[in-house]
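Morning!

As promised:
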Amino acid sequence: MARKKLIAGNWKMNCLLAEGTDLAKGIAAEVKKMGKPSCEFLVCPPFTLLTTVKKALRGAKVALGAQDAHFNVKGAHTGDVSPVMLKDAGCQYVILGHSERRADHGESNELINKKAVAAYEAGLKAVICIGETLEQRDSGKTIEVCSNQILGSVPDNADASNTVIAYEPVWAIGTGKTPTAQDVEEVHAAVRKVLAKKLGKGNANKMRILYGGSVKPGNAKEFLSLPDVDGALIGGASLKVEDFVAIAKNAGCC
Ligand code: 13P
C-alpha cells in the first residue's frame, strides 16, 4: 500500500502579515512549478494568518492547517478556537498535541484525544504528535512513551483518512540534533505496530507517520526514504521557501 508523502510546515508562533503572505505565496509558486508532485503539501500558520494564507495559496495544491483547536464547537472559552471555526477559515488539517502544547499548556493524552474527535466531527484531519524527552530516551523508554501516547491520544475511530501521526522527539525540536535514521525507523515501525493493535492492520498500513525534529534539506533524503516514514513535520526550515522546497525535492517529491 503506497502512502503519499506529506510535507508539512509548522510555522509555530512566527510571521506577521507581510512575511506570512510572502512565505505562502513563495511556497505556492514553487509547488505549482512542480507540476504533479508525488507528495502532498501542508502549511500550518498561526491563527491570525489562516485566512490570508488561504488566499495566498489559491490555485496551488497546498493544504492549510491550524496548530491547535478546542474540543467544543463554540461557547465561553476565551482565547480558544474551535475546529468548526478552523474549517470555516479554510483549514483541512489541525496539528494536535504538539510537544510544545503538551509542555506549555499541560495537554494530556485524554485532552488531545477529545480534540481529535472534535476535529473529525468538524471535517478536519488531525496531525497527532507524539515523542519522547531526552531523559526518557536516555532511560530506554522511547518506545514505551510513544506507544502510550498513541494509545491515549489517538481516538478509536481514527483512520488513514482523518489522521496523520507525527513522531517528534522533543530533544530534536529546534536543536539541530536528530536521532539516527535507524532510531527513527525503529520508532516508526513500533508506532505502526501499536496502531495496528488499536485500529486494525489495514488502517495502520495506510496511516501516514511523519518524522519531525530538525528536518533540513541536508537530512531530508535520509529520513524520508525510510520505509515507515511518510513525510515530515518541519518547524524552522518551513519558514524559508527555499528550504521547505529543497526538503520536498530531496525527499523525491518531484
Ligand atoms: P524544527 O524543525 O524547528 O526542529 O521543529 C520541528 C517541529 O516541532 C515541527 O512541529
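Residues 181-199 form the longest helix (19 residues).

Hope this helps with the figure draft.
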